[in-house]
Amino acid sequence: MKKKLKKLILSAVGILAVIFIIWTLWGNTALMLTEYTVSSEKLPAAFDGYKICHISDFHDSEFGKSNEKLVNMIKNTEPDIIVITGDLVDHRRTDVPLSVSFVEQITPIAPVYYVTGNHEEQIEGFDELIDGIMSAGAIYLNNRSMQIQKGGEHINISGVDDPYFLVNYIDKTEQISLDKILEEVLPEEGFNILLSHRPDYFDIYVTHEIDLVLSGHAHGGQVRLPYFGGVIAPDQGLLPRYSEGQFTAGDTNMIISRGLGNSIVPLRVNNRPEVVVITLTR
After folding, report:
1. Positive or negative, the Cα torsion across 231, 232, 233, 235?
2. The pTM is what?
3. Under a CB-based contact definition with an 8 Å cutoff, are residues 245 and 271 in contact?
4. CB 176: neighbour CB atoms within 10 A?
5. Of 48, 177, 196, 273, whose CB count within 10 A is highest?
6. Residue 39's CB: how many other CB atoms inside 10 A?
């Protein structure tokens, strides 16, 4: 009886392990759509119902042949604009043509706005990447702001480069303050959207009373546990506070994408790659 029981237990464990492996592998390629609504009295009437498709941490991924699945999902959201909040490439296995091809496919869908992540700073082909995506029609918001016009009204969209671009990478001693950059970049009036790769600067975003911040970087905590959420994220360590979802303080909303690809850790667990859609309302 003991031998039979032991065999049953081992068989059950083996079956569960196989199920877990299959489920995890499926979950790394099974795209999901996450939708949010952000309301503000500052939003001009012409932008009521405005839709933003948010992509982050692409990391040279492929979802279907030539990223067909991903491109179709983005297209089906019928966005007014598409934003990419960094780590379009992965410095460990950089494939600039793949990432440029993805941008080329989505620029006909809607205007594309892009900011860098930490991986862009670490690749040798950065100039090639920027030339490629700008030739495709994407707008690179490198520490600058511009207006989006609609119906005779406008909102502001700004972007900041990842902090990796703001340090002397040889001795790490010279750093430009993100706070100072935001003072120079952000318009003083109007509804402000900020694209910034890193969510862990939420307190700074709140200080500047930015209406909507879109970020990534945390990969959803890589492994997600029920109740606890994300397990680990770069620059935040274990059980990160800002790993995914919507955070609100005062008039500032920050939405963090779990992103699409992987980097150091090759697998996500309970953490499907996501495309985010934000609808703005008055």
Report:
1. positive
2. 0.93
3. no
4. 13
5. 196
6. 11
15-18 contact pairs (CB < 8 A, 24+): none
Alpha carbons 62 and 70: distance in angstroms, whole number: 8
Contact 156, 146 (CB under 8 A): yes
What's the rounded Cα separation, in Å, for the pair 142 and 114? 8
Spell out the SS3 assignment of the chain.
CHHHHHHHHHHHHHHHHHHHHHHHHHHCCCCEEEEEEEECCCCCHHHCCEEEEEECCCCCCCCCHHHHHHHHHHHHCCCCEEEEECCCCCCCCCCHHHHHHHHHHHCCCCCEEEECCHHHHCCCCHHHHHHHHHHCCCEECCCEEEEEEECCEEEEEEECCCHHHHECCCCCCCECCHHHHHHHHCCCCCCEEEECCCHHHHHHHHHCCCCEEEECCCHHHCEEECCCEECEECCCEECCCCCCEEEEECCEEEEECCCCCCCCCCCCECCCCEEEEEEEEC
Q: What is the pLDDT of residues 144-166, one digit of tens each?
A: 999 999 999 999 999 999 988 87
- Residues 36, 258, 133, 192, CA torsion sign: positive
pLDDT tens-digit readout, 58-115: 999 999 999 999 999 999 999 999 999 999 999 999 999 999 999 999 999 999 999 9
At 224, the pLDDT band (50, 70, 90 cuts) reads: very high
Task: Report yes or no: 230 and 195 within 8 Å, Cβ to Cβ.
Answer: no
3-class state of residue 236 by DSSP: coil
Distance CA 30, CA 97 (A): 23
Give per-residue burial for 47-78: e unless 16+ CB within 10 Å, then b: beebbbbbbbbbbbbbbeeebeebbebbbebe
